[in-house]
Design goal:
This protein has about 450 residues and is an alpha+beta fold. It has 10 helices and 20 strands. The longest helix has about 35 residues, at about 25-60.
Amino acid sequence: MSDRESGNQNDFMIEKIKQRPINRKKLLRRTILTASMAVIFGLIACFTFLVLEPVINNWLYPEEEPQTIVFPEDQREMAPEEMLAENLPTESPAPTVKPETESIMLEEEQVQAILDKVTLDKDSYVQLYESLNDFIYFSDELAEQASICQYMVTIRGISSNIDWFNNVQESDSQASGVIIADNGKEYLILVDYTSLKNADSLVLDLQNGYYQIEATLKGLDPSTNLAVVAVNQYNIPVESMEADGLAVAPMGSSNSRTLVGTPVIALGSPMGISGSVGYGMITASTTLSTVDRNYKQLLTDIVGSRKASGALFNLKGELIGMIAGSKTSSDTGNVINAYGISELKKVVEKMSNENKLPYMGISGGDVPTSAHVHNEIPYGAFVREVAMDSPAMLAGIQQGDIIITVNENLITSFSDYSAILMQIEPGEAVSLTVMRQAQEEYKEMNFNIVLGERK
């Protein structure tokens, strides 16, 4: 091989290969496109996860639906004349036995001898109040009965305001409530909502405010300002449950014939201070007339605060009334009064199940027996007043009408009317039969009314 050919071959072997020049604009576009697609796919993945996560979670761990709350109705109390009629002998009366005067006198002497040995002094007075204190704060372990203070809780309303300098200031208000039900998921608390109505959020105070658990409003009755507030049981710490020992209060009756004179205990904030207590008795009961429903108002001799809240319990530990501080009249001073629990049950039941309250717009009462006998006024729900622009007024119901049927159900009193009305949902049509006075007689009239919602 010649030197020239060898030189040419060496030149070919050391020849440099140039790289293609980088198109920076095209590379930047691809980078931006890739990053954008990554962001878009990330957002789609996040959205899909947020949408499907509750579904998958409920499928894997199905959440139990809250139980429907139903409060048992009061058992009808027999009138004395009915008990007398039942006890009348149907067969020949049994032979009378001559009383043994000597034995009766002997028993009375024994009782008197025992009473003579009993001396009442200041120590007896102290023991009486100590026993009441034990009844309030200490549970009966043998009977597995909670102390009545475990039925009471404090609901706090928190509001946020901005001052002139754009500083956020928080203010709170509070009211005492009573645990009325457990639906398997939540504790339901009945509370006077008057002081909480302007709050931005609600919390349940536990262990004197150490824990604050979020609470939600289930329902509100505008006639009484009573509300049902719910607290999720899973949000309550175990140590707080053990310390506070929350329990559902048993419901008593406010329809007893011997209600006046019944000893009662006021718990919650009867003196305007959380945790205060009042002892006394029911001195009178009156009827408080509201739209579509009448409530029993229980007056006591317990002197408290006009901002009182809480509940009344009898000495069996049963809830018999909700303190109504805002309904205290001027002539009764600062004595504690309450709504009877029997008349509240159906309304509270509706609110506990988040059902809307029906609205007809009628205030009234019962037809007295004397008016029925002497003036031949038919029994029914007497209409004293019709609310402006209410469904009843728009349908033509007038003051002085007497409602005798609702959806073909016989009505003999205003409580019958209220009970039937609470079984109907807002928006449903109802048929009413009323008796209206025309000159010297009553004539029957029929109406079809679409119920509204109580707001």
